[in-house]
Amino acid sequence: MTDHDVPLGEPVPDAGLDELRSRVSAFVRDQVFPREAQLDAGGPNATELRKRLREEACGTGLWALPLPADLGGGGVSLRAYASIAEAEGASDHGPAALGSASLLDVTMLSRHGSSRVRAEYLRRLVSGDLRTCYAMTEPDAPGTEPLLTATRAERRAGGGWTITGRKWFVSNAGEADLVTVLARTSGTVGDRDGLSLLLVPTDSPGFRVVRELPILGATGQYEIEFDHVHVDDDHLVGEPGQALVIAGERLQLGRTLRALRWLGQAQRAFDLLCRRAVERQGARGALGDRQLVQQHVFEALLALRGTRSLVYEAMALVAEGRDAHVEVGLAKTAAARTLQDVADRAVQVFGAAGLGPDTPLPALFRTGRAARILDGPDEQHVSSVARRVLRGLQRGPAVTPV
């Protein structure tokens, strides 16, 4: 651990963890689920609602559970946080409502931020007074090929950097106070060396939100522009040219957190499916008495159980700081597929009601479909995992079975 690292807490005893997860699950069910439509709509009303949810979470001792205790968080270790992340993730808005949405940024800036950045931003990130976003993908370059990044950060004669370029599919950029941007600080497009991360306040002259990019009709993604935006030297994250190393750390944890949250949403869809099968009565009895509906229940449960094992295995390795590329690739792909599959089965059992606004199933299905592209499409993870497994076999028999 370097002097820039902030510990993420100590493990919680199993009994305490079970109770904490139950409280988080109840908060999401009772406080977040009923307000999802308002939060989805965005705007000032959603901002005010998030503030009220933050106050409620703080009042019940559930705010920022996985964030460092010495910064105002709950100090729960990453490994212990896994089951809580699944409970929070039952709603897309759960992590923000409970203060864990900033975990990736707090972790990154704790390890790689300058002393000024850590002093100025970390506590405010943990408290929820600041919101962040992460800008990596560009309109004219595949998101899976960061070496093609064209956004540039040039050294200024008087010190600092000038950033020029455009990014898109940036989550929450419309309300963010800070954006971490991937930019080329040396070399040319296609070079492996020369990529850096810079932290940019969104009130900087030259920063602009170009447009919102609805994902299958849902809000929250944006295209942004940097038109000769100036940032100070101490807003460089890590060292120049270190972006791919830092991004790699961030991606392993980020993909695992997403997988846990998608797992929580898949469980929510499964619960809806089962209740519908039991409660919906037809001329020949309950839907659940029909073999085809029973098959939907079985296949959904099978997918959930298998995916949960993969995701928790990945989280255990990430929490220990071990190489988890294979496990994270499997977990991310499985969780995305499972969410889409289980939500689809639930829609089928609900029939026309599953397509309308009276259940969360359309949103859950939409998230599942988008999940197969976000944080790397299925195809990228399939190829990456397979290559690593085959390289391991080529080096000798000591390869972890997949």
UniProtKB/TrEMBL annotation:
Q: Which residues form the Acyl-CoA dehydrogenase/oxidase N-terminal domain?
A: 18-129
Residue ranges of every copy of the Acyl-CoA oxidase/dehydrogenase middle domain listed in the record: 133-229
Q: Which Gene3D superfamilies does UniProt cross-reference here?
A: Acyl-CoA dehydrogenase/oxidase, N-terminal domain, Butyryl-CoA Dehydrogenase, subunit A, domain 2, Butyryl-CoA Dehydrogenase, subunit A, domain 3
Q: Name one GO cellular component term.
A: cytoplasm
Q: What class of enzyme is it?
A: oxidoreductase
Q: Any idea of its EC number?
A: 1.3.99.3
InterPro entries, sorted: Acyl-CoA_dehydrogenase, Acyl-CoA_Oxase/DH_mid-dom, Acyl-CoA_Oxase/DH_mid-dom_sf, AcylCo_DH-like_C, AcylCo_DH/oxidase_C, AcylCoA_DH/ox_N, AcylCoA_DH/ox_N_sf, AcylCoA_DH/oxidase_NM_dom_sf
A molecular function annotated in GO for this UniProt entry is: acyl-CoA dehydrogenase activity
Short name of one Pfam family? Acyl-CoA_dh_N
In this chain the Acyl-CoA dehydrogenase/oxidase C-terminal domain maps to: 246-390
Q: Which cofactor does it need?
A: FAD
- Provide this UniProt record's keywords sorted from A to Z: FAD, Flavoprotein, Oxidoreductase
Q: Family, per the entry? A: Belongs to the acyl-CoA dehydrogenase family.
Q: What is this protein called?
A: Acyl-CoA dehydrogenase
Q: Which organism is it from?
A: Streptomyces venezuelae (strain ATCC 10712 / CBS 650.69 / DSM 40230 / JCM 4526 / NBRC 13096 / PD 04745)
